[in-house]
Amino acid sequence: MPISTKLTRSLGITHPLIQGGMHYVGYAPLVAAVGNAGGIGCITALTQPTPEALQKEIRTCKALTKKPFGVNLTLLPALQPPNYEAFAQVVEDEMASGQLRMIETAGHFRGLEPFVKKFKAAGAFVIHKCVTIRHAKSAEKIGVDMISMDGFDCAGHPGEADIGNWVLFAKAARELSIPFVASGGCADGKQLAAAIAMGAEGMNMGTRFMATTEAPIHQNIKQALVDADEHSTTLIMRSMRNTERAFKNKAAMKVVEIEKENPGDFSKIAHIVRGDNYRRAFQETGDIEEGVWSAGTVMGLIDSIVTCQELCDNIVAEAEEVIKGRLSSSVTFVSDDDEGSKAPPKITPYWLLQYTYTDNVLEKRVPHRPEHLKLAGEFKSEGRLVMGGALGDLTGATVIFRSKEDAEEFVSQDPYVKNGIVTGYEVKEWSVV
């Protein structure tokens, strides 16, 4: 049974798994494969040389899948900053069909807020990647929908605070008023179960998706991830306060050596860290020692190259096993009379609402979706709605309520019912032990 969270329900996906933006990896074939596997993937906007090339990549993805997908736009300082506004305009234009519905943002160069407002006005679900609670609260204030909390384990840029996931996620659950997903060092179902237990709505993975059949990178790079372990990364550009976690190869260690001798002087390492070296290793030579390329400590959990479908299914199946088995069996019921005795299982009746959707639901639901989600949110906050969401093929939806009256009241108010998005429904009792 799929794991339903705010992430899956908000985006209409099956599994609470995101393939985040990655330079020279986040292309249409991988993104489409993740979507077809039930998760949601991100095309990396700035891997594309021009806004026009990004538009072509987005349209290629639309041709490869009918599932939802996203775009990553990272706003970071650069020697020659790209035209962020032009890239953002392409993203906005391509959102009209409703299939491109998630924007993953990171950084804050030139100000994040105008981009968030622009994307949300176009109907996007915006997830902002943060490495501290302080930054997450700032993003929350400007209106992002969800935070991707990125712990120190992550590949790429872990920030300068060096805060691990164990504390970061727990504090995010305490202090944020918007939902978050776990990011950094994520690879398996035990971690997904743990992330949900700590308050997260899913996981955002990068390095693990690189070691998949569909990842459009050289086989040598994929095999290097399998052969490596959690000790196979190093941190570069610390002296410039632009820390990056990279694969520990000859190029990265040369950067570390130069930095020790010339702290803060980017000009001394520019020829090694330039993006074309990265691209060439991934797309042409497969030389794992060439260029500085991002990889996370999660390599310690990567032992095979699998398809995206296998990866997503295995993660969710393992998470379900942990949640239903290990976690539930760890809770014992103790009576007042006998501390060692267990209370008998309690049968709790719930009510199942099953919708059947009209054809072309992706397009038809667009004007009514905000009101529908708001209604669901109100019922959930009042404790009347337990969980639910659209089916993976978007032929309908299943929602669980506390009572029959709650289910029927929801139907009477739902704009999807009023406007013909729902062509049929059934309310029936559903008992859970």
Please report the total strand number as a whole number.
14
Main sheet summary = 8 strands, parallel, barrel
Number of helices: 18
Sheet with the most strands: spatial strand order: 1-2-3-4-5-6-7-8
Strand content: 15-25%
Radius of gyration: 23 Å
Question: How confident is the prediction overall: mean pLDDT?
Answer: 92
What is the straight-line distance between the termini? 16 Å
Structural class: alpha/beta
Question: Level of helix content?
Answer: 25-40%
Low-confidence stretches: none
List keywords for this structure.
four-stranded antiparallel beta sheet; alpha/beta; 39% helix; 433 residues; globular
